[in-house]
Automatic annotation (TrEMBL):
GO molecular function, one term: N6-(1,2-dicarboxyethyl)AMP AMP-lyase (fumarate-forming) activity
A Pfam short name: ADSL_C
A single GO cellular-component term on record: cytosol
Family annotation (InterPro entries): AdenyloSucc_lyase_C (IPR019468), Fumarate_lyase_CS (IPR020557), Fumarate_lyase_fam (IPR000362), Fumarate_lyase_N (IPR022761), L-Aspartase-like (IPR008948), Pur_lyase (IPR004769)
Residue ranges of every copy of the Adenylosuccinate lyase C-terminal domain listed in the record: 367-446
Gene (name only): pcaB
UniProt KW Oxidoreductase keyword: no
GO biological process: 'de novo' AMP biosynthetic process
Coiled coil: none
Keywords: Lyase
Protein name in the entry: 3-carboxy-cis,cis-muconate cycloisomerase
């Protein structure tokens, strides 16, 4: 089996998609070891209730290590049986000394073991994702504090709108990620449960102590107990992938922000570049944002899997392995993609190049147009809002059509001169005077959010 590997493990893209830690969690060996862990936990739970001998449970636990099994034999048996778990159960049974093997997989069904194993892998993957999100939040909080009063143009509809601060933008980004932290924590409670339904969801094969056994196995694995069997209800995994999709969307947004701010014409922030890093094979001057581009590609690929994850919820009858097989593919790939995307973002924002001088220069390139709202609102006092809006809009139009600085046209207008002293006009055209409550908003965002 090659679950979750596909193109993600190919040598040519390893440095762009995924990361070594997440691939280590979702490789085939770790997945099979998780299944063995479930088998061992089942045996120990049964022994604790007197269902099987304690010595047999210990023997099964000792043998339930993949490095003690012949993986070549496993692969050949899988090809013959066309079954994902039976070869592993057979190998574990054969590896047990004495008659302990007779108690392997007692009362269990394939999907119980496999689904619980996937839950264990998802838990390990979520630990990594949570740690990466926490690190990114910490970095953005530091940037927000460092640049809480650093002025830059706010942009709406792709155009300069008003002055803001780079710190406020970072505070907004960390706030979004804080909500993802909450979603991860809430979703874990629903996802991290055992699957113990038995062959058809009735738990019949587990005998009269089925509920006690379920609790014992859950305790052995550090998982919760589901209220009902969930062979045909994949909403837990679907929710997990939806949350990963939300994080991926935020990741792509952050990557695109750096991509845009690093444009030659903008130059306000840029992806760090190592001394040996090559931007272009032909143009030595290029500083290509390759990490951001990798995040964009990975995030888009992951988000495209979310509809398929929702499709897995539409299972037929009491068990539907077509759904299960889809999840076998989706879970590893989505975790690997988000792990790589977040690692790239931590690299980018951890050493982000920020150019306050260019931010200020860009604020000035409109010749004061970016302060038109400030002027309009100040004129609204003596003139009324509607008249002030029409007046300033006419002045803006004249400035653009005549290719004259906004400040010059503004000062030359008799209505403006009659309504405002020249000193007031000069003050209104200072970008630093119209960043509003940006610094206070940064403080409030960081105060009201949790520091990881």
């Amino acid at each position: 089996m090659q679950l979750g590997s596909c193109f993600l493990d190919s040598l040519t893209v390893t440095s762009f998609f995924g990361n070594a830690e997440m691939r280590g969690v979702f490789n085939d060996r770790q997945l099979m070891q998780s299944w063995l862990d479930v088998e061992a936990a089942l045996a120990r739970g049964q022994a604790s209730l007197g269902i099987i001998p304690t010595a047999a449970a210990q023997a099964i636990t000792d043998a339930a290590r993949l490095d003690r099994l012949d993986t070549a034999v496993l692969a050949a048996d899988a090809a013959d049986t066309v079954h994902p778990l039976v070869p592993l159960v057979r190998a574990l049974t054969a590896a047990c000394p004495g008659d302990a093997g007779r108690y392997v997989h007692l009362g269990a069904t394939t999907q119980d073991v496999m689904d619980t194993g996937f839950v264990l892998r998802a838990r390990a993957g979520l630990d990594i994702v949570a740690r990466q999100v926490d690190e990114l939040v910490r970095i953005l909080r530091r940037l927000a504090l460092r640049h809480r009063t650093t002025p830059m143009p706010a942009r709406t509809h792709g155009q300069q709108a008003l002055p803001t601060t780079f710190g406020l933008r970072c505070a907004v980004w960390q706030s979004e990620l804080q909500r993802h932290r909450s979603r991860l924590a809430q979703m874990r409670e629903r996802l991290l449960v055992t699957s113990m339904g038995g062959a058809a969801g009735t738990m019949a094969g587990y005998g009269p102590q089925a509920f006690a056994l379920e609790r014992a196995v859950a305790a052995e694995l550090g998982l919760g107990v589901a209220d009902t069997p969930w062979h045909a209800t994949s909403d837990r995994f679907a929710e997990c992938l939806m949350v990963l999709g939300l994080i991926a969307a935020s990741a792509e947004k952050l990557a695109r922000e750096v991509y845009f701010l690093g444009r030659t014409e903008i130059g306000e922030a840029y992806e760090p570049q190592g001394s040996a890093q090559v931007g272009s094979s032909t143009m030595p001057h290029k500083r290509n944002p390759i990490r951001c581009e990798a995040v964009i590609a990975a995030a888009g690929t992951l988000r495209a899997q979310v509809p398929l994850a929702l499709q897995t919820m539409i299972a037929q009858d009491d068990r539907d392995m077509g759904v299960g097989m889809t999840l076998w593919k989706l879970l590893p790939e989505c975790f690997i993609l988000i792990g790589g995307a977040l690692e790239r973002l931590v690299e980018v924002f951890g050493d982000l190049g920020v150019n306050p001088d260019r931010m200020r220069l860009n604020l000035d390139i409109t010749g004061g147009l970016v302060l038109s709202e400030a002027v309009m609102l100040r004129l609204a006092g003596p003139l009324g809002r509607e008249q002030a809006h029409h007046l300033v809009m006419r002045i803006v139009r004249d400035s653009l059509e005549q290719n004259r600085p906004f400040a010059e046209v503004l000062r030359a207008d008799p209505q403006v001169a009659a309504a405002l002293p020249a000193a007031d006009v000069a003050g209104l055209l200072d970008p630093l005077s119209y960043v509003g409550h940006a610094a206070a908003l940064v403080d409030r965002a960081l105060l009201n959010s949790e520091s990881p």
